[in-house]
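Slides due. Your pick:
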Amino acid sequence: MSKERVKDTWIAKKWFTVLAPTYFGNVEIGLTPADSPEKAIGRVMETTLYDITGDFSFIHIKLYFRIIDISGDLAQTEFYGHEFTRDYLRSLVRRGTSKVDGIFDVVTKDGRALRVYPVVFTINRIKSSQEKIIRKMMEEVVEKKAEQLNYGDYAQEIVLGKIASEIYNLARKIVPLRKCEIWKTKPIKVRAMVGAPRAEAQTAV
């Protein structure tokens, strides 16, 4: 392809300003080019919670937003999952302690499905019976909150740590805890929940 052809292709493209959804403040999260609005629909944009809130303590939380609508030169999005950076997760691991992971599929009040990944870090090693109790608490909290909240509100409470705090306050009655986080979420189809994994095994570290 000639340089002139490439130049003409880029001239034909328009830049759209991508906004976070209203439940994340409609903050501008980037720009995306397309030669027609339809071609921008479905694109997934990555940012961090720090970029949205200005709070540097959230720099480790990566957010994904999918473009669902174009109005003029503005692209509207919806939450499309989140995850913590690997470096931050590694920094939470300590020798002589336990890490309890869970994977739970939930459906929000308005019928949207998410796979939710909570994790608890203990101060000391724990018994398998204690691990089972904690994992059950995780499951009950994430499912109950999903039943109570619409998709946007649920995403907000997960990303801002509110649901993790609820798990922490319950689980610390069983064993001393160092940290509780929901380190990842991703959208799934409701039908994909059939036969989906419910939880991971506890891992001592």
